[in-house]
């Protein structure tokens, strides 16, 4: 009976902290080196590098702080866009464990931060935000 508190502690840690057993997820977003010099009409390509291939979401946080769902890309490259404008304004794909988002023609409405989000073991993992602003 002396091991009961230790067992409960291990179970509690397992439910609260899935990363302690090697079930973590690493997400990095890469962008072109000239992202600080964006121009209206420019093509912007973002890459989400992950250590897993389960599909990824791309989210845009605009200058007012509002989040906008852009697209979900499945591990088989199937895309689900948030609205009709998204499907014509953005391209999305994946290769291996990398998920790509392309803004075909950057506009002032596209300014903000871009996030790659993954669902892994019933938890959402967000990449660090990638800022994209006009000069």
From TrEMBL:
Its membrane topology is listed as: Single-pass type I membrane protein
Q: Does the keyword Glycoprotein apply?
A: yes
Keyword annotations of the record: Adaptive immunity, Cell membrane, Disulfide bond, Glycoprotein, Immunity, Immunoglobulin domain, Lipoprotein, Membrane, Palmitate, Signal, Transmembrane, Transmembrane helix
Write one Pfam family the protein is assigned to. V-set
Q: Where in the cell is it found?
A: Cell membrane
Recorded hits in Gene3D superfamilies, A to Z, give: Immunoglobulins
The protein depicted here goes by the name CD8A protein
Gene this chain is encoded by = Cd8a_1
């Amino acid at each position: 009976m002396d091991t009961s508190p230790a067992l409960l502690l291990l179970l509690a840690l397992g439910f609260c902290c899935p990363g302690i057993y090697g079930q973590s997820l690493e997400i990095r977003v890469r962008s072109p080196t000239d992202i600080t010099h964006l121009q209206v009409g420019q093509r912007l390509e973002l890459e989400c590098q992950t250590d897993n291939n389960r599909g990824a979401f791309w989210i845009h946080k605009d200058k007012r702080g509002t989040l906008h769902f852009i697209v979900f890309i499945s591990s088989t490259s199937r895309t689900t866009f948030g609205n009709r404008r998204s499907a014509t304004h953005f391209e999305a794909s994946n290769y291996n464990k990398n998920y790509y988002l392309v803004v075909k023609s950057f506009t002032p409405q596209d300014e903000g931060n871009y996030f790659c989000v993954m669902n892994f073991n019933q938890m959402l993992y967000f990449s660090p935000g990638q800022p994209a602003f006009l000069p």
